[in-house]
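Hi support team,

I submitted a single chain yesterday and got back a structure, but I'm not sure I'm reading the C-alpha cell output correctly. Could someone confirm the output below corresponds to the sequence I sent? I've pasted both exactly as they appear in my results page.

Thanks,
R.
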Amino acid sequence: MLDDFEKLRTASGSEEWRHRRSMELGSLVQRRLAYLQNPKDCESAKKVVCNLHKGCGFGCQLHHLTYCMITAYAMQRTLILESKGWRYAPKGWETVFMPLSETCTDKGGGSKIRWGPSMSEMERHQILELPIVDSLHPRPEFMPLSVPADLAHDLSTIHGDPPVWWIGQMLQYLFRPNKRLQDDIDATVKRMGFRSTIVGVHVRRTDKINLEAAFHHLDEYMVHVKEYYDQLDRRHNGTQRRVYLATDDSGVLEEAKKKYPSYKFISDNLISKSASLGTRYSDNSLRGIIIDIYLLSRCDFLVCTFSSQVCRVAYEIMQTLHGDASEKFRSLDDVFYYGGQNAHDLRVLEAHPGDGDSMVEIKIGDAVGIAGNHWDGYSKGTNRRTGASGLYPSYKVENTVVAVKMPTYPEVPLDSS
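Hi R., thanks for writing in. Yes, this is the structure output for that exact sequence:
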C-alpha cells in the first residue's frame, strides 16, 4: 500500500509542483523577515525585545527565540535579541550565528511596555518587551499552531502540516551559522562522508529519562529505519543503508555497530561526550548540538522522540529543505507540538461510538483536543462538544489549519513572480 501511494503521489508531476511552490513561499517569507529585521530607521522603528536567557537547553532556547520571531512578524516589529552572557556562549548569539539584523540591534527608542495589557495598549508603545512563553498572558491568537491567513490556502494545498512549515521558516532565518561555524560544519560533513540517502536517528537520554521521556532501546529506533530502507529497496534495490546517529550517550554508537553490521553508521562520539551533563554548556557542546541539528535536518528521514526539542527543531528545519517533510519521520513518543502552543484541535471525519470505558464517542464535525498518539492506531483526546476524554481511532480525525490575519508586507508582494 505504501508503495502504491508513493507511485500515486509522484505520478502526475504534482510533487515537483508542490516542492517548487513551497520553495517560492519560503523565499517570500525569508524576504519579509529580512525586510522586517532591517528597517531604514532603527531609531524610530517599532521593536520587540527578546532575552535569550531562558533557563533550559539549546533546543528549548531556540524555540523561545522562534516564538519571539513569530511575535515580531505578527506585530510587524523588528526583533532585538539580548544574548550577552548566554550560557552557551557568553559573548552572545553572533559567536556562532549570523546577526538577526544588519541595521538595527539597539533596543533604545521611545516608550516601553512589558507584554500584558491589551493589544491596542501595547501597540501604542515603541518598545515591547517579551516574557518567556510560559508567562505570556494574554495569549495571542497568532501563536502556533496558527499560520498567516495570506499563506494558509497555499500551505493547505502543498504541505501536510502547515504549522510545522511556518515554524520552520522562522528557524531558517534564525539558524544561520556564521562563516567560521559554517566552515567547521562543511569540514565535518566532508570528514564524516555525510551524504544522501541517509536516515537520521536521534537518541536522547541523560537528563530526559524518567523526567520528560521514557527510555527507548536502540532496537525501537531501528525498526523504523529498517522499514524505511525496506520500502526504498522495493523501488531502488541495493541502496546502502546509512544512518546518521546523533546521541548524548556515547555508548550507543558501539552498540549500533555491533548489533547492526549491515548498516553504515555515521556519528561523532566527541559530540556525544560533549553533550553529557558535565560539559553541556561548553563551546564544544554548543558546536556539537548545532552540527547534530544541521545534519539531522538534512537527512531523508528522521527517527527520534518528539519529546526532545532538538528532534523537533531538526524536523521543523527539514520542511524548508524538502518542501514537504511532514511524513518523513517516526516519533517513538509524542506527536509534534510546540511548547506554549495554543490548543491543538482535530476535526472528526468519521463517527465512532464510545464504549463507556476507555473509548470516547466522536461525531462528524466534532473538535477533538489531542493529548497524544499511542502509535497503535489510537490517540487520546478530549471531545470539545461533550467534554469527555478517552481514546479514538487516529485515522478518523484530521488536523485543521488555523489561519490568523497578520500584517501584510506591501514592499514584498505575495506573488513572487
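A quick pointer for reading it: The longest strand covers residues 367-373. Let us know if anything else looks off.

Best,
Support desk
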